[in-house]
From TrEMBL:
Name listed for the protein in its UniProt record: Mutator protein MutT
Organism: Kribbella karoonensis
UniProt cross-references to SUPFAM superfamilies, sorted A to Z: Acyl-CoA N-acyltransferases (Nat) (SSF55729), Nucleotidyltransferase (SSF81301), Nudix (SSF55811)
Chain ranges passing through the membrane: none
Keyword Hydrolase: yes
This protein's UniProt keywords: Hydrolase
UniProt xrefs under CDD domains: NUDIX_Hydrolase (cd02883)
Length: 480
């Protein structure tokens, strides 16, 4: 195999955008084009050493971690073939202030799904390979246990996912629900179609791999149901006009060895995050045959509500073959569904607090308390207790909020410690554990006043501690 000539760094920010920089017009190689960070290896350098050097030299940031090797490919310029390895990396440094290397780059940008055409500006050779590489990085996601790659055909940089689609549909469970397997040619056509869906719709399906072993786990993600079709019209009648704007459907399919482990929920959660945080959608549906109880259970764990039934081609519980008008269950998630979920969380929390002698108060704060929350808004709750160490020393009690994972812990001031948890639906609940002194009303702590002023709804207040605090922070004396 040819020795490695150069390396590239796919640096992503918290919004999954990739950092780009524009080569100056005076550069001999590809002047004026947008590029990723990278460069050639010096004699005796390893690719990893060259990567760390190029990132620091071109941006001022330092490589913290090499997440994975994304591409190993070759390109030619002026008759010379170069082998390049590109890595997805995390970096340390101020991502808002890259240090452009003088004479080499004159502008920087963060490219999201709508910015991929930057990679074609001044690209006189029409080569789309770098653009497709950045698209892959922008669209990829990681869950706790899965790596989700946007399905593509071979594009000169990546080998494509046709072989894995063929393997997926050869699985007996998957082929049962999709009425058959795929030949190699059919899988190649499917992969090319999925890539076209991503480029046309800004959304598409991922292939899912186990992050530890790399084994194929399944497929899932989003698709846009074509407008003005019987299926779209039937779903819109149930889900409402908000859904009809984006027509996003969430789905998943797992090989048998990956089933029963909660991985479909992880894929679904990633799809909802992409829909609401990246695409800014307002509503997403999922639908499956009424006989598919397993998929409906996943939809319910994701916080989706049952919207009704439509008829479409599929399996029926009382038929041995695919029917043209099988009954399908439609589930939807939108602000109404999320509000219902928040209401259920709050009700459970109030019942729990009432049974705990050391809980002195419970309040909802922030956007949900003000009734201005969006699908992506966190639920913020304050737990007032005389023994905060009890609740900071263990996590079992967080089950009352439906925690499937603890996202982070952070101290805010002398009293308040935030424990941020995530539910199966993707809803994050920020639980503020605080000593009773946080609610002191004479005087009021400045941090407490800011929280209360931003919106508060008292949920459990047996001794009226929170009521007194709210009166001081929001009543006439608050302006003094």
């Amino acid at each position: 195999m040819r020795a490695v000539d150069c390396v590239g760094a796919l640096i992503r920010d918290e919004e999954h955008r990739v950092y780009l920089q524009r080569r100056t017009a005076e550069r001999r190689l590809l002047p004026g084009i947008w590029d990723i960070v990278g460069g050639h290896l010096e004699a005796g350098e390893t690719p990893e050493e060259a990567l760390a050097w190029e990132v620091e030299e071109e941006t001022g940031w330092k490589v913290r971690d090499i997440v994975r090797t994304v591409a190993d490919w070759e390109w030619e310029w002026e008759g010379r073939v170069r082998r390049e390895i590109d890595y997805l990396v995390t970096v340390d440094g101020d991502l808002t202030r890259p240090r452009l290397e003088p004479g080499k780059h004159d502008k920087s940008a963060w490219a999201g799904p709508d910015d991929l055409d930057l990679l074609m500006v001044n690209r006189t050779d029409g080569d789309r390979r770098l653009r497709d590489l950045v698209a892959h990085a922008v669209r990829s996601r990681f869950t706790d246990r899965l790596r989700l790659e946007p399905i593509t055909g071979p594009n000169g940089v990546l080998p494509g996912h046709a072989p894995d689609l063929e393997r997926l549909f050869a699985d007996p469970w998957v082929s049962r629900w999709y009425d058959g397997s795929l030949s190699a040619d059919q899988a190649a056509d499917q992969a090319a179609k999925h890539q076209a869906d991503w480029d046309r719709d800004g959304a598409g399906k991922w292939i899912a791999y186990d992050r530890t072993t790399g084994a194929l786990a399944g497929r899932g993600g989003l698709s846009r149901i074509p407008a003005d079709t019987p299926t779209a019209e039937a779903i819109a009648a149930l889900a409402g006009p908000e859904w009809a704007t984006d027509r996003l459907e969430l789905g998943w399919a797992l090989v048998e060895t990956a089933r029963g482990r909660g991985l479909a929920t992880e894929i679904g959660r990633a799809g909802l995050d992409y829909a609401f945080n990246t695409l800014k959608a307002s509503s997403v549906i999922a639908f499956t045959e009424q006989s598919n109880a397993a998929s409906q259970a996943v939809m319910q764990r994701l916080g989706m509500r049952y919207a009704g039934e439509i008829r479409a081609e599929g399996w029926s519980i009382d038929a041995s073959k695919v029917l043209p008008d099988a009954p399908f269950a439609v589930y939807v998630t939108d602000r109404a569904a999320r509000a219902q979920e928040v209401g259920e969380v709050v009700s459970d929390a109030v019942r729990w607090a009432a049974d705990q002698a050391d809980i002195r108060g419970l309040a909802m704060v922030g956007s949900w308390a003000r009734d201005v929350a969006r699908m992506t808004s966190d639920l913020d709750v304050i737990v007032l207790t005389d023994v905060p160490e009890r609740y900071l020393g263990e996590d079992d009690w967080l089950e009352v909020f439906g925690a499937v994972s603890v996202v982070r812990r952070q101290e805010w001031g002398p009293y308040l410690t935030e424990v941020r948890i995530q539910r199966a639906s993707g809803l994050e609940v920020e639980v503020g554990i605080t000593a009773t002194a946080w609610a002191a009303s004479d005087p009021v702590d400045p941090g407490t006043r800011r929280v209360v002023a931003d919106g508060v709804r008292v949920l459990h207040d047996p001794e009226q501690l929170l009521a007194a605090l709210v009166r001081v922070c929001t009543g006439p004396a608050a302006d003094l």
